[in-house]
Amino acid sequence: MTATVSTGSVAAPVRRRSPLRAVLAALLAVVAFLVVVLPAAAGLQVLRAARQDDRTPTDVVVVLGAAQFNGHPSPVLAARLAHGAELYSAGVASHVVTVGANQPGDRTTEAAVGAGWLVSQGIPRGDVTALPVGHDTLSSLTAVAALMAKRGWTSATIVTDPAHEARSLAMARALGIQAHGSPTQHGSGSSLTVEYVVRETGGLLFFWVVERRDIDQVVGV
User: Fold this and answer.
1) Domain ranges of the chain
2) pTM attached to this predicted model
3) Spatial CA neighbour of 139 closest among 174, 103, 100, 105
Protein backbone atom coordinates (compact mmCIF):
# COMPACT_ATOMS: atom_id res chain seq x y z
CA MET A 1 0.00 0.00 0.00
CA THR A 2 1.43 3.31 -1.09
CA ALA A 3 1.14 6.30 1.24
CA THR A 4 0.05 9.62 -0.29
CA VAL A 5 1.92 12.62 0.91
CA SER A 6 -0.04 15.88 0.85
CA THR A 7 1.99 18.97 0.06
CA GLY A 8 0.31 22.15 1.31
CA SER A 9 1.09 25.51 -0.22
CA VAL A 10 2.54 28.23 1.96
CA ALA A 11 0.62 31.55 1.74
CA ALA A 12 2.71 34.46 0.58
CA PRO A 13 2.98 37.25 3.10
CA VAL A 14 0.55 40.12 2.49
CA ARG A 15 2.36 43.35 1.70
CA ARG A 16 0.57 46.26 3.26
CA ARG A 17 0.60 49.56 1.46
CA SER A 18 2.34 52.26 3.39
CA PRO A 19 -0.08 55.00 4.53
CA LEU A 20 2.55 57.58 3.60
CA ARG A 21 2.78 56.21 0.06
CA ALA A 22 -1.01 56.37 -0.26
CA VAL A 23 -1.03 60.00 0.86
CA LEU A 24 1.78 60.90 -1.54
CA ALA A 25 -0.03 59.19 -4.42
CA ALA A 26 -3.20 61.15 -3.65
CA LEU A 27 -1.25 64.40 -3.47
CA LEU A 28 0.43 63.69 -6.79
CA ALA A 29 -2.96 63.02 -8.37
CA VAL A 30 -4.28 66.33 -7.07
CA VAL A 31 -1.20 68.19 -8.28
CA ALA A 32 -1.47 66.57 -11.71
CA PHE A 33 -5.13 67.58 -11.91
CA LEU A 34 -4.40 71.19 -10.94
CA VAL A 35 -1.28 71.59 -13.05
CA VAL A 36 -2.17 69.54 -16.13
CA VAL A 37 -5.79 68.45 -16.44
CA LEU A 38 -7.61 71.59 -15.28
CA PRO A 39 -5.51 74.06 -17.34
CA ALA A 40 -5.84 71.80 -20.38
CA ALA A 41 -9.61 71.71 -19.96
CA ALA A 42 -9.73 75.49 -19.62
CA GLY A 43 -7.57 75.97 -22.69
CA LEU A 44 -9.74 73.66 -24.78
CA GLN A 45 -12.84 75.51 -23.59
CA VAL A 46 -11.32 78.84 -24.62
CA LEU A 47 -10.50 77.52 -28.10
CA ARG A 48 -13.87 75.82 -28.54
CA ALA A 49 -15.88 78.92 -27.59
CA ALA A 50 -13.68 81.09 -29.80
CA ARG A 51 -14.64 79.09 -32.88
CA GLN A 52 -18.38 78.87 -32.26
CA ASP A 53 -20.86 81.29 -33.79
CA ASP A 54 -24.11 80.44 -32.05
CA ARG A 55 -26.99 82.30 -33.67
CA THR A 56 -29.78 80.76 -31.67
CA PRO A 57 -32.54 83.39 -31.28
CA THR A 58 -32.33 85.11 -27.90
CA ASP A 59 -33.98 88.00 -26.06
CA VAL A 60 -31.03 90.34 -26.35
CA VAL A 61 -27.58 90.79 -27.86
CA VAL A 62 -25.06 91.92 -25.23
CA VAL A 63 -21.98 93.74 -26.52
CA LEU A 64 -19.30 93.77 -23.85
CA GLY A 65 -17.35 96.98 -23.44
CA ALA A 66 -13.84 97.87 -24.51
CA ALA A 67 -11.90 101.10 -24.63
CA GLN A 68 -13.32 104.27 -26.15
CA PHE A 69 -11.31 107.35 -27.03
CA ASN A 70 -12.95 110.71 -26.49
CA GLY A 71 -16.35 109.46 -27.58
CA HIS A 72 -15.13 107.19 -30.37
CA PRO A 73 -14.95 103.39 -30.08
CA SER A 74 -11.52 101.81 -30.11
CA PRO A 75 -10.86 99.32 -32.92
CA VAL A 76 -11.65 96.44 -30.52
CA LEU A 77 -14.94 98.00 -29.41
CA ALA A 78 -15.83 98.89 -33.01
CA ALA A 79 -15.36 95.25 -34.06
CA ARG A 80 -17.64 94.08 -31.25
CA LEU A 81 -20.28 96.68 -32.10
CA ALA A 82 -20.21 95.80 -35.79
CA HIS A 83 -20.76 92.14 -34.95
CA GLY A 84 -23.58 93.02 -32.56
CA ALA A 85 -25.23 95.10 -35.28
CA GLU A 86 -24.89 92.18 -37.68
CA LEU A 87 -26.61 89.83 -35.24
CA TYR A 88 -29.42 92.32 -34.73
CA SER A 89 -29.90 92.68 -38.48
CA ALA A 90 -29.90 88.89 -38.85
CA GLY A 91 -32.81 88.66 -36.40
CA VAL A 92 -30.90 86.89 -33.63
CA ALA A 93 -32.41 89.34 -31.11
CA SER A 94 -34.61 92.43 -31.26
CA HIS A 95 -32.64 94.41 -28.69
CA VAL A 96 -28.98 95.23 -28.11
CA VAL A 97 -27.39 96.13 -24.77
CA THR A 98 -24.02 97.85 -24.66
CA VAL A 99 -22.03 97.60 -21.44
CA GLY A 100 -19.11 99.40 -19.83
CA ALA A 101 -18.29 102.27 -17.50
CA ASN A 102 -15.70 104.98 -17.98
CA GLN A 103 -12.08 105.36 -16.98
CA PRO A 104 -10.80 108.26 -14.85
CA GLY A 105 -10.82 111.42 -16.95
CA ASP A 106 -13.26 110.10 -19.56
CA ARG A 107 -16.17 112.36 -20.43
CA THR A 108 -18.40 109.47 -21.46
CA THR A 109 -18.75 105.71 -21.03
CA GLU A 110 -18.06 102.68 -23.18
CA ALA A 111 -21.76 101.81 -23.06
CA ALA A 112 -22.88 105.27 -24.23
CA VAL A 113 -20.35 105.34 -27.05
CA GLY A 114 -21.42 101.87 -28.14
CA ALA A 115 -25.11 102.74 -28.10
CA GLY A 116 -24.49 105.91 -30.08
CA TRP A 117 -22.51 103.99 -32.67
CA LEU A 118 -25.26 101.40 -33.10
CA VAL A 119 -27.91 104.09 -33.54
CA SER A 120 -25.69 105.83 -36.11
CA GLN A 121 -25.71 102.56 -38.07
CA GLY A 122 -29.49 102.59 -38.31
CA ILE A 123 -30.61 100.56 -35.29
CA PRO A 124 -33.65 102.28 -33.71
CA ARG A 125 -32.89 104.08 -30.45
CA GLY A 126 -35.65 102.14 -28.72
CA ASP A 127 -33.92 98.87 -29.53
CA VAL A 128 -30.65 99.85 -27.85
CA THR A 129 -29.90 100.13 -24.14
CA ALA A 130 -26.68 101.57 -22.74
CA LEU A 131 -25.69 100.05 -19.41
CA PRO A 132 -22.80 102.23 -18.17
CA VAL A 133 -21.65 99.82 -15.48
CA GLY A 134 -18.60 97.65 -15.00
CA HIS A 135 -14.85 97.95 -15.19
CA ASP A 136 -14.41 94.21 -15.67
CA THR A 137 -16.31 91.34 -17.23
CA LEU A 138 -17.89 90.02 -14.03
CA SER A 139 -19.24 93.37 -12.83
CA SER A 140 -20.55 94.14 -16.32
CA LEU A 141 -22.37 90.83 -16.64
CA THR A 142 -23.73 91.12 -13.09
CA ALA A 143 -25.36 94.39 -14.16
CA VAL A 144 -26.63 92.74 -17.33
CA ALA A 145 -28.21 89.91 -15.32
CA ALA A 146 -30.01 92.45 -13.10
CA LEU A 147 -31.30 94.37 -16.14
CA MET A 148 -32.49 91.18 -17.81
CA ALA A 149 -34.35 90.08 -14.68
CA LYS A 150 -36.04 93.49 -14.49
CA ARG A 151 -37.19 93.32 -18.13
CA GLY A 152 -38.16 89.67 -18.09
CA TRP A 153 -35.41 88.57 -20.47
CA THR A 154 -33.88 85.15 -19.90
CA SER A 155 -31.56 84.52 -22.85
CA ALA A 156 -28.69 86.53 -24.33
CA THR A 157 -26.12 86.36 -27.09
CA ILE A 158 -22.77 87.49 -25.73
CA VAL A 159 -20.52 89.40 -28.14
CA THR A 160 -16.84 89.82 -27.31
CA ASP A 161 -13.42 88.79 -28.63
CA PRO A 162 -12.99 85.09 -29.49
CA ALA A 163 -10.50 84.28 -26.73
CA HIS A 164 -12.64 86.17 -24.19
CA GLU A 165 -15.85 84.34 -25.09
CA ALA A 166 -15.44 81.23 -22.90
CA ARG A 167 -14.91 83.20 -19.70
CA SER A 168 -17.77 85.57 -20.54
CA LEU A 169 -20.15 82.67 -21.17
CA ALA A 170 -19.10 80.92 -17.96
CA MET A 171 -19.80 84.06 -15.94
CA ALA A 172 -23.12 84.78 -17.65
CA ARG A 173 -24.38 81.25 -17.10
CA ALA A 174 -23.29 81.29 -13.47
CA LEU A 175 -25.40 84.45 -13.07
CA GLY A 176 -28.46 82.61 -14.37
CA ILE A 177 -28.42 83.87 -17.97
CA GLN A 178 -29.20 81.41 -20.76
CA ALA A 179 -26.11 82.55 -22.62
CA HIS A 180 -25.06 81.84 -26.20
CA GLY A 181 -21.76 82.92 -27.69
CA SER A 182 -21.07 84.72 -30.95
CA PRO A 183 -17.58 86.23 -30.84
CA THR A 184 -16.26 88.75 -33.32
CA GLN A 185 -15.07 87.19 -36.56
CA HIS A 186 -13.15 90.11 -38.05
CA GLY A 187 -11.28 93.20 -36.93
CA SER A 188 -9.19 94.03 -33.88
CA GLY A 189 -9.27 91.50 -31.08
CA SER A 190 -10.51 88.67 -33.28
CA SER A 191 -7.10 87.03 -33.68
CA LEU A 192 -6.36 84.04 -31.45
CA THR A 193 -2.86 85.03 -30.42
CA VAL A 194 -0.99 82.71 -28.07
CA GLU A 195 -0.67 85.47 -25.48
CA TYR A 196 -4.40 86.21 -25.50
CA VAL A 197 -5.37 82.54 -25.29
CA VAL A 198 -2.97 81.91 -22.40
CA ARG A 199 -4.24 84.97 -20.54
CA GLU A 200 -7.87 83.98 -20.98
CA THR A 201 -7.13 80.39 -19.99
CA GLY A 202 -5.74 81.71 -16.73
CA GLY A 203 -8.76 83.98 -16.34
CA LEU A 204 -11.17 81.09 -16.85
CA LEU A 205 -9.27 78.98 -14.33
CA PHE A 206 -9.45 81.81 -11.80
CA PHE A 207 -13.19 82.07 -12.39
CA TRP A 208 -13.71 78.33 -11.91
CA VAL A 209 -11.66 78.18 -8.72
CA VAL A 210 -12.42 81.52 -7.04
CA GLU A 211 -15.07 83.75 -8.60
CA ARG A 212 -17.64 81.04 -9.33
CA ARG A 213 -17.81 80.21 -5.63
CA ASP A 214 -18.50 83.87 -4.80
CA ILE A 215 -21.32 84.00 -7.37
CA ASP A 216 -22.88 80.81 -6.02
CA GLN A 217 -22.93 82.30 -2.53
CA VAL A 218 -24.68 85.44 -3.78
CA VAL A 219 -27.31 83.72 -5.94
CA GLY A 220 -27.82 80.93 -3.41
CA VAL A 221 -26.79 77.99 -5.59
Assistant:
1) 49-219
2) 0.82
3) 100
In three-state secondary structure terms, 12 is coil
Tell me the pLDDT tens digit for each residue of 122-165: 999 999 999 999 999 999 999 999 999 999 999 999 999 999 99
CA dihedral 195, 197, 199, 205 (to 10 degrees): -160
Q: Which amino acid makes up residue 90?
A: A
How many Å apart are CA 111 and CA 134, to the nearest integer? Answer: 10
For 49-219, the fitting CATH number among 2.60.40, 3.30.1460, 3.40.50, 3.40.1000 is 3.40.50
Strands 72-73 and 96-99: unpaired
pLDDT one-digit tens code per residue, 14-72: 556 567 766 666 666 555 555 667 888 999 999 999 999 999 999 999 999 999 999 99
Query: Smallest Cα–Cα separation from 77: which of 192, 171, 186, 189?
Result: 189
